[in-house]
Amino acid sequence: MKTPRVVCCLVGGLLTLIAAGPLVGRAFANVSVGEPIENFELKTLDGQVHAVLGKNAVANVVVFFRPEQEHSADALKEMADCEKVFASKPVHWVAVVSDSWEPGVVRTFVAESGIKMPVLIDQGDVFYGKLGVKLHPTIGVFDAKRRLTAYEPFRQINYCDRIKGRIQLVLGEITEAQFAAIENPARSETRSETGVSRRHLNFARQLLRVEQYDKALAEVDKSLEVGPSADAYALRGQILAAKKKCPEALRAFDAALKLDPANADAIGGTKTCGR
Q1: Partners of 95 in the beta sheet?
Q2: Is the preceding omega at residue 137 within 30 degrees of 0, hence cis?
Q3: Domain 21-182 bears CATH identifier 3.30.200.20
Q4: Phi, psi of 216 (to 5 degrees)
Q5: 96 or 199, which is more confident
Q6: How many whole angstroms separate alpha carbon 107 and alpha carbon 105?
């Protein structure tokens, strides 16, 4: 395998990145929030030509990643879940990777993540250099006018929720105030309770991916025993929907929305069940 020149990029159709807080001032050196970018056309892993930004997309998500990097693997797995939430909406997802990596390495890495978005190869890192990407992984979100609305380097907590919130903001589904609640979620009374609940939910998500639905429900219920949360109810609804039990799933989604009207998983889940 060749040594990567600078970075690999995953572009997820929507290029909205959220500020990275204390991690970094800017994830892109050559483009600022609010500025438009040129819409590059790159080849996919299969040799087809594909645009970075969708022609009719309202939101575009672009994820820059590096194969064989732990945080990139985690970011892609979370984006696999995010894709499903917006499957019926005008959101364009792409993954862009540097041509410094061998195609076989990229294919294996992407397959293990579960993402469905096209993977684009940045020949000579031209697109990568145009934006001046400085961190891996990093996700950017662009609006319909090709403007960067936010950038988000990887973070281990609340990453997918932040990306979903940014997409909802571009789609006009939530307000800035509602996104602020996602960006700074209310903390549980004790850190130990928060940690226990999150561990059960993370395990439940893994079980859902491998279609171990009953075990996943059991883990969600353990989380709910610690305390009610919109994420737990929304995940319960997703599992029940996967089991083709939409009436029960809708009750779970409604419980989630009662706690958090902007919960993207619950909003998307109700539509999956035909509401």
Answers
A1: 63, 119
A2: yes
A3: no
A4: -65, -40
A5: 96
A6: 6
